[in-house]
Write the structure tokens for this entry.
Amino acid sequence: MMRALLAFLVLVLTGVSAPVTAQDLQTLLQTHKEEVANPGRRSVGVVIDDLIASGLPQVPDFLQNWQDRKVTQDTATGLFYYDKPLRDVDTGEKVSLEGASLNAIKPNGGVRKVIGAALVQFQLSDPDTARRAAALDAIARSPDPEQIEPLEASLEGEADPAILARKESLVALLKARYGATTEARVAAIESLSGKLSLDARAALNQILTTAAGVATEVPEGTNVARILKPGADITEVEAYGRLVDAGLAPARISQSAIKEALAANIDGGKVAGIQVHDLNTLERRFEAYTRLAEQGLVPPTTSDAAAAAALKTHVFYEAYTESDAAVTDAAKATLTGIERKVAINQTADLALDALSLASIYFLAAIGLAITFGVMGVINMAHGEFIMMGAYTGYVMQQIIPDYTVSIIVALPVAFAVTFGAGVAMERLVIRWLYHRPLETLLATFGISIALQQLAKNIFGTQARPLTSPGWLDGALVFNEVVAISYIRIAIFVLALIFLGLILFILNKTRLGLEVRAVTQNPGMAASMGINPDRINMVTFGLGSGIAGIAGVAIGLYAKVTSEMGADYIVQSFMTVVVGGVGNVWGTLAGASLIGVLQKGIEFFNPSNTLAAQTYMILFIILFIQFRPKGIVALKGRAAEA
């Protein structure tokens, strides 16, 4: 069957017509009429071989319909047709058989599997890329040594680089498991050394599958993976249990079971000839039990000394199910190298995730860092400015259907909206509460609740979609382990832009000079003609506006709800406190530390993100005990607060 299939594939690829003994597919099917109508798993191969050898272009379609149970037979004439709708097997044209008695052909699961295996080989050279990919999926799910030759035959004509690479990988995987010679298998295994895919690791692990064994001596020809030492590699109890399972030692019986057996066999004040009052030691009780076992009255057992002796006289080992040591040695070396590369790439992937999370925390916290650093105001409503920015982005997408344009427009609009809201909040509430931190905290917390309720009244309680542009879909994939979504890359780039922009404003503009002056010494700044009240207002508005822009970016990644600000307010405050209040570089350092810390904890405990948050908060509490002013301490009013 395989040779016929290869010959057919060669003919298809070279465009040469195969010699056809039958004039058409229907004529060929009639020569196997009974087998096609009632196929069996063992005998259907003859039909498939003849179909493949015929070289008829209709064969793949027939096999597909046969597998899908869409073939029917006219019981009067014996001719076969495709069903639903009724069509000719050669031309595919619809036919009408009014009054005919039709019998649906329904091959069982085993026959359909054989048909599917043959059909996969056709699909490997199908012009449709999707069908070729589906054929490779089928081979990966059910690998078989007979698939090696047709896979190799299909390599030469493969034009798609991705499909070609996958075919080559599958060939290597199949040869590693089913290669004809040791040299071929070892070569295939070594060719997998650069692969990080799960398929490659799974294939190598299958080769390295082991089974536990025990014997007085390791059987000759056994491919031993390792020798197990009782008490070190396995417990003595487990080791003795293996002896019992192998029939090499009697089962141990507990002391309580021995006492019950002795009590049940008391006869005339004696047990097996030993006086009951003499059964006051473990040795005497075991002796009595042994006598009962010799008489067949109780199951046999063994003493501690005998069990220890049995362990010493037997070898416990794990043996590879693969008998060829050269193959297992190559697989072990290759798998070790792959796992080392996987560990390195997992570290790189974790670092990318931490960097991405740090950029999100930086965007969320930078506005709070500026506000807190200059004004010393604990703004519990900062998260709601993030929420307002995200909802602004959502509204812009309702007005502008182009997602790219709407996001570009949403960024300045969100800044304007939240800047205005921040200025209004500072003028109406915050300015009356300077140097009163408790009242400020309570007031901003109340404003936070009010803004959440206002958002619920306007937008409802369900999450609103903030859809990213099409060019942000998908991810940048470096290999099978390392990948990062384009949205996260965009947020990272936005964080870098903001970092540069804020540094420019603070260090290169008059506003930045005045902000730094008020931060370091408000009294001296006022004497130099700077209005601290105006600077406070503008600074609070600037911090709120930056939070609004951060909301647009975060909304592309996270859900947009009225409570979304609460998800970031705690991290924002932690970022500011750890990094250093009021310092841009400190905020960056704090965001980086918290991002790395959170991702590191989640890596060791991925199923419990709440635990990760808890451990992170505990770490930060300990951190600020040793460095209360943060990583980058600030001088001036913020440092004194």
About this structure: DSSP finds 27 helices and eleven strands in the chain. The longest strand covers residues 210-215.
